[in-house]
Amino acid sequence: MSTHILFDFDGTLVDSLDAAFTAFRQIGPEFGCAPLSRERLERLRGMHALEVVHALGVPMYRLPQLATRMRRAMRADLMETAPIEGIGEVLETLLQRGHRLGILSSNARASVREYVRRHRLPGLDAVIGGTGLFGKAGALRRQARSQGIAPRRLVYVGDELRDLEAARDARVRFAAVAWGYTPLKSLATGGPDFQCRHPRDLLSIDVERP
Ligand SMILES: O=C(O)COP(=O)(O)O
């Protein structure tokens, strides 16, 4: 039987970290954040998104507004950024093997769909977007329910600790990727079901588990 594989977007299908960094340097100060250096960014990458928000001094009530402003500021750069190298071929192979693919992202659905179309990423027409930064667990649960499948038959592929946490909460399997925002060694502390150092490692995540 095939597995439903849902992909996170930013960091997992496209390396948007530079675009995020540039946008934050512009917008962060409006939210009372100190200017961000590359060195500090590197230190923040190992942390959970909530810890990052705290470390940057963003009040929680302003987070949705900051995230929306960031997404808008990043959009043009993002559209010009190529997908992670090798991901297109891997998606193609997963499709040929009969897997059902999709995207589940806290980024805006319209931007993600536009990106998939422009960069011709195969099999990713189903896009769930705008989940809220910390709303992915509920979205994963709803997805399993609406597809009529047990959560364990879903795999979420992501690059951040909030992705891993959401998959755990929803009892969905999680594949951690090494090429995203959060280093694999930080993701490994959360005990992901699969660790992918290269996109082709995604081809072995269909292993059935009891
Ligand atoms: O909230 C964002 O824009 C980041 O989106 P992601 O869930 O695809 O990482």
From TrEMBL:
GO terms for molecular function: phosphoglycolate phosphatase activity. InterPro entries: HAD-like_hydrolase_sf (IPR050155), HAD-like_sf (IPR036412), HAD_2 (IPR041492), HAD_sf (IPR023214), PGP-like_dom2 (IPR023198). GO terms for biological process: DNA repair. This is Phosphoglycolate phosphatase. It comes from Thiocapsa roseopersicina. GO terms for cellular component: cytosol. It holds the Pfam family HAD_2. Signal peptide: none annotated.
